[in-house]
């Protein structure tokens, strides 16, 4: 009889508990909201149990929300992610702006990522990298929406010269980023590890894997550089806030870029300010759509036509636009000079060793040679040759002696179109491509018939010399 009474006594309590839990599960956002998660309390007192339960309920909501938007890239919930959710959910102006810009940039990113079968969630990384600013530049030289360093950008086919920096080109840089992520995933086998590698390099990630004896990001996290430890949690938090902005009173802001655009390819030099005048838009508005052109001159040629993004041409003055696009005169030097590295770390290293490596060569001009040919031979600029030798023009004559300042031995003529490279432990395709002028990851793949980016130590690779 006593046992039976106890059962009847417990049944109402169990029913009440089950009902409360089912309501919470059905509508998690109806739970009590507080303006601050971590309220000020006296550290000398023990918190009441009700406060811990509320905190658990709030955190459980975040986990449910992350689970609901997870697709291919894992979006786990933990204390590290929560810290960045707290930070980002308070940056209402910043994320309102990101929501507006995403209307223009995300379709560009998604097309490039889909081309390489990379999850579309990776597009949110541009919030962490650059706040979706194509002109962003870090203190060490990383540039553009995807913050490519000079060497990595070059390895993935981005052009940097006196007219253009394709790291700032939303389209070109997005395809390069997609190719990088595809290579990283093929090598590392995990999207969170690929994200970490984008921040600190595949070499650092592989070393952390070896130290931890695991391929789980959260287990190798302690062995990664400090910035990278927080990089992945910040990414997950950014994905969360962009998808649940309304739950944190974040309002999308208007995008200041033209959402409806047209594209033209030009094989001539075109002035963007003149084109803006013909389109009846501001020069800044056209420059924002074409951020990669350094001098606001589009350097198109027959061999390498260049893209111009224009506001939609409905009701435009086509005669004026045609005249600008087909003008034969632009006051600009047509010579393309490839840029040298702007990696601050590489420049510091080079500067420290310049004094010990600099040599002076006295070169005798041969019949048929030009300043351009000699400059190419010694990897210097034509303008430098003119300054060193007080030349007023590009005219030189056979037998003339030129003084040339070079670093180390002069470049030798190539004896064959390829050289061989023996793969070492820890090498990646992007690392190898950065060591050779004019070589890209895709070219190494093509020359060696590689379908994937995985390398084995001892493998012999054929490297193109031009």
Describe the protein in words:
It contains 19 helices and eight strands. By secondary structure, it is mostly helical. The protein has four domains: 86-248, Lysozyme (Orthogonal Bundle); 261-325, no CATH class; 344-407, Membrane-bound Lytic Murein Transglycosylase D, Chain A, CATH 3.10.350; 418-464, Roll (Membrane-bound Lytic Murein Transglycosylase D, Chain A), CATH 3.10.350.10. Strands 1-4 form a two-stranded antiparallel ribbon. Strands 2-3 form a two-stranded antiparallel sheet. α3 crosses α11, α7 packs across α8 (191-200) and α12 (272-279) runs antiparallel to α14 (318-325). The longest helix is centred in the N-terminal third of the chain and has 25 residues, at 2-26. The termini are far apart.
């Amino acid at each position: 009889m006593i046992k039976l009474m106890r059962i009847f006594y417990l049944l109402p309590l169990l029913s009440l508990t089950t009902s409360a839990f089912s309501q919470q599960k059905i509508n998690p956002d109806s739970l009590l909201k507080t303006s601050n998660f971590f309220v000020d309390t006296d550290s000398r007192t023990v918190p009441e149990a009700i406060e811990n339960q509320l905190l658990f309920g709030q955190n459980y909501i975040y986990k449910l929300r992350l689970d609901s938007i997870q697709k291919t890239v894992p979006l786990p919930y933990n204390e590290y992610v929560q810290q960045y959710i707290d930070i980002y959910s308070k940056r209402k102006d910043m994320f309102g702006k990101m929501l507006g810009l995403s209307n223009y940039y995300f379709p560009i990113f998604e097309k490039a990522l889909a081309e390489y079968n990379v999850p579309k969630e990776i597009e949110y990384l541009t919030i962490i990298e650059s706040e979706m600013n194509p002109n962003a530049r870090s203190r060490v030289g990383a540039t553009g929406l995807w913050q490519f360093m000079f060497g990595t950008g070059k390895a993935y086919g981005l052009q940097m010269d006196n007219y253009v920096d394709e790291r700032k080109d939303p389209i070109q840089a997005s395809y390069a980023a997609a190719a990088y992520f595809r290579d990283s995933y093929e090598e590392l086998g995990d999207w969170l590890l690929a994200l970490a590698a984008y921040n600190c390099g595949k070499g650092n990630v592989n070393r952390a894997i070896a130290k931890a004896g695991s391929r789980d990001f959260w287990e190798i996290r302690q062995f990664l550089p400090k910035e990278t430890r927080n990089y992945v949690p910040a990414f997950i938090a950014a994905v969360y806030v962009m998808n649940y902005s309304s739950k944190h009173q974040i309002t999308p802001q208007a995008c200041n870029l033209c959402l409806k655009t047209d594209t033209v390819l030009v094989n001539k030099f075109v002035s963007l300010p003149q084109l803006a005048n013909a389109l009846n838009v501001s020069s800044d508005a056209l420059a924002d759509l074409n951020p990669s052109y350094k001098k606001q001159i589009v350097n198109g040629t027959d061999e390498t036509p260049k893209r111009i993004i224009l506001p939609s041409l409905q009701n435009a003055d086509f005669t004026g636009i045609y005249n600008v696009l087909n003008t034969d005169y632009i006051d600009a030097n047509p010579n393309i000079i490839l840029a040298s590295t702007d990696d601050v770390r590489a420049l510091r290293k080079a500067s420290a060793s310049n004094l010990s490596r600099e040599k002076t060569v006295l070169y005798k001009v041969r019949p048929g040679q030009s300043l351009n040919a000699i400059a190419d031979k010694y990897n210097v600029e034509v303008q430098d040759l003119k300054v060193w030798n007080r030349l007023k023009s590009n005219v030189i004559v056979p037998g003339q002696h030129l003084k040339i300042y070079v670093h180390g031995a002069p470049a030798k003529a190539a004896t064959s179109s390829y050289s061989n490279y023996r793969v070492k432990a820890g090498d990646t395709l992007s690392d190898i491509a950065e060591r050779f002028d004019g070589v890209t990851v895709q070219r190494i793949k093509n020359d060696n018939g590689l379908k994937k980016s995985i390398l084995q130590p001892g493998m012999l690779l054929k490297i193109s010399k031009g």
